[in-house]
Structures are given as structure tokens and as C-alpha cells.
Amino acid sequence: MFRVMAKKVFLLLCLLFICPCSAVSQQEAEQQAVNGCEAENMFYQALEVLPSGEGGIAEAREALREITRLYPHSRWQKPAESILWLIDQHESCALERAENKKRCDFIVEKSSQCQGMENRCKDELARVLVEKEQLKRDLERIKDLEIELGRKNLMK
User: Fold this and answer.
1) What is the pLDDT of residues 32-90, one digit of tens each?
2) Three-class DSSP category at 75
3) Structural domain tally of the chain?
4) Which of 16, 56, 64, 115 is the most buried (most CB within 10 A)?
5) Residues 84/61, Cβ–Cβ less than 8 Å
């Protein structure tokens, strides 16, 4: 009988110690659930503003940083970090693209300048070749005139 009573007292004491602990963990669970909902809402709000351009990207970045700062143990923390990384990569690529565009514009400008210079050189070459041909004809004419003059001098 004493053993049965001791077991009941022991069980009662265990329940008394476990119940407050479970109440604390239940409160923590409820708080985590509330935090999870808040983090989820912030996450989806950040995703909604992303397509709206630069202002949306900055706003989304702030919301995602808040999730990682305020809710580090939320299930939305890792996706938020991933999207932050993607945003950083997007901005890095955008900067690189802008630099590459500047380089391409510079190359196109220099190419146009070179094309213009090449066209002027071709025109000058064509003019010089025409002048050369004219000089050849003039030289041939001078030679013919000298030969003719030499014949006239011999006949005299």
C-alpha cells in the first residue's frame, strides 16, 4: 500500500514539475509561431515589391535584412538570406553590365573613328593612284615629245 501511495506521490510531483515547464515551452512555441507568421508576412511582402524596380529592390532588401535580424531562427531566415544574396548578385551584374556597356560604347566610337579614317585613306589612295596614272601618262608624253624633238633636231 505504501508503495502504491509513494508511486502516486511521485507521479504527482513529476506532473507538478513538468506542467510549468511545458507551459513555458508552450509559450515559447506560441511566440515562435507568431514570429514565424510575422517573418512569413515580411518575406512575402518583400517578394511582392521586388519587381517594382530599384525602389522595390531597396525596400525588399530592408525587409529581408529585418527578417534575418529579428527572426534568426525562423524558417524564413534562410530563404531571406538566399534572396539577399541573389539581390547582391543582381546588383553586381548590373554594375558589371554598365561597365561593359561603357567599354562597348567606347569601342564602337573608336571603331567608327577608325572606319572614318579608313574611308579617308581609301579616298586619298584613290586620288593618289589617279594622280600617279596621270603622271605616268604625262611622263610618257614627255618622253614622246623628247623623242619627237630629237627627230626634229636630227632633221634640221
Assistant:
1) 555 568 888 888 898 888 877 777 888 999 999 999 999 888 899 999 999 999 999 99
2) coil
3) 1
4) 64
5) yes
